[in-house]
Amino acid sequence: MIETVAFIHHALEGHYAPHEIKSLTRILLEQVCGISPHQQILHKDNELSVTEKEQIHRFVKRLQTGEPIQYLLGRAEFLGLSLRVNPAVLIPRPETEELVDRILRTEKGKALRILDIGTGSGCIAIALAKFLPESRVTALDLSPEALDIARSNATEQQVTIRFIQADILRTKETEALLSQPFDLIISNPPYVLESEKAMMEPNVLDYEPATALFVPDNDPLLFYRSIAETGLSLLRPGGSLYFEINARCGAITLDMLRRKSYSSIELSQDLSGKDRFIKAIR
Asked: 199 CB contacts (<8 Å, ≥6 apart)?
């Protein structure tokens, strides 16, 4: 194993920061060879099989191109759940875990009617269905490929979710598909400005779906306005709307929600101190 670890570090040097290489090494040994992080420390002298070494060499070659390891392995972790991912869906982010964790702590033990808009891999909907088992969860996305992944993940995690293909920008059409009132609507819609592309890592730009990431600079609230408008029709009075937002757009998102007559609007920061989450009441 020592030889393979040295190979990974040497091959990825210059492509990733040292802490990233350490993390990638741990993940490769765990996922390819079934060696837990604890065992990686205690059994450094263990020999890997030829098949394992060949697999790691293939994966490292792909990592050198910038391909995200989650797509390479076809899996991503979200709140302790192992979910399928591919380039049709975004890789779940820690900030989204924070948002869901906030809801789980606030709504613990409740039986809610929940709508997840722009579900992607299904990570939000599945976590809420898993950890709020008395709740009824509906999830929608425009992409049929994303919905295929989300359905597969729901089956693996043994949760029941109603999946719907719909375009949230077509507000009236979407509302017609979602007749029931909801207690909670949550969304992590596209919010990265086109002008922010220059600051993004190539492994995001080259591999993750642009339609799930970007909005025009001249209309940063494109999706938030439609979702807020839908919430006025689909949320019960007193129901909650949760957003993950662009850190640069906190003030204008708050203003938009106030103008749409939402109340008790709260802007919160993520663990890095950036404006990231909004909760509002219908």
From this structure: none
Measured between alpha carbons, how far is 36 from 40 in angstroms, rounded to an integer?
6
Same domain? For 96 and 227 the reply is: yes
Cα 57 versus chain centre, distance? 28
Q: Answer yes or no: is 70 within a domain.
A: no
**Into how many domains does the chain fold?**
2
> Which ranges constitute the DSSP H helices of 138-221?
144-156, 171-177, 202-205
8: in domain = yes
Examine the fold and report which residue of 28, 46, 65 is the final residue of a domain before the chain moves on.
Answer: 65
Say whether pLDDT at 45 is over 80: no
Q: DSSP E strands: which ranges in the chain?
A: 75-78, 81-84, 113-117, 136-141, 161-165, 182-187, 192-193, 214-215, 235-244, 263-269, 275-281
Which has the closest alpha carbon to 142: 114, 173, 111, 112?
173
What's the domain range around 56?
A: 2-65
pLDDT digits (tens, 9 = 90+) for 129-169: 999 999 999 999 999 999 999 999 999 999 999 999 999 99
For the cut 90, the answer to whether the pLDDT of residue 41 exceeds it is no
**CATH (domain of 131):** 3.40.50.150
DSSP string of 94-127? HHHHHHHHHHHHHSTT---EEEEES-TTSHHHHH
Is there a single domain that holds both residue 17 and residue 46? yes
Residue 227 C-alpha from the chain's centroid: 18
